[in-house]
Design a protein that fits this description.
2 domains; two-stranded antiparallel ribbon; 2 strands; globular; 55% helix
């Protein structure tokens, strides 16, 4: 009888702990989605970048090279290559995963988007390649 009571008490403890963890995980996922929306806009040049990717903001703050590490020319050159390959993959839904390449990126190399936009776009490409094990150019993505 003592063993049965002990087993019931332990079973209730396990059930109680599991239900709490599920709610906490759901709250964390919602919080990380809300936090990981990056929006950059400039009405003068009429552009806007919105990145909705769970984990990107934390990765950008902790693992990416700091601002000023790359020159703007370097970032613009790499972004042109990466955007071109991204758009090629977005245009071939039968060949590439449509959940990864949902839409094209309109990036005009003749527009000066500024350092901030190029920095975040470049780092998003690095993050994307590392997280989803994709390679968008001959350059191996690294931090």
């Amino acid at each position: 009888m003592k063993n049965l009571a002990l087993i019931l008490v332990l079973a209730f403890c396990f059930i109680g702990c599991n239900s709490t963890k599920t709610l906490d995980n759901e709250k964390e996922e919602l919080a990380s989605t809300a936090i990981d929306t990056v929006r950059i806009a400039n009405e003068e040049v009429e552009y806007e970048i919105i990145i909705i990717e769970p984990g990107f903001t934390a990765w950008l703050e902790t693992r990416a090279q700091p601002k000023g590490y790359y020159s703007q020319t370097f970032l613009e050159t790499r972004n042109q290559l990466l955007v071109t390959e991204w758009n090629n993959r977005a245009n071939q839904p039968g060949r590439y995963d449509t959940s990864l390449y949902e839409m094209r990126i309109d990036y005009d190399p003749f527009i000066d988007y500024g350092y901030e936009v190029n920095y975040i776009l470049y780092n998003y490409f690095i993050y994307f390649q590392l997280r989803y094990k994709q390679q968008l150019s001959s350059f191996v993505p690294r931090i």
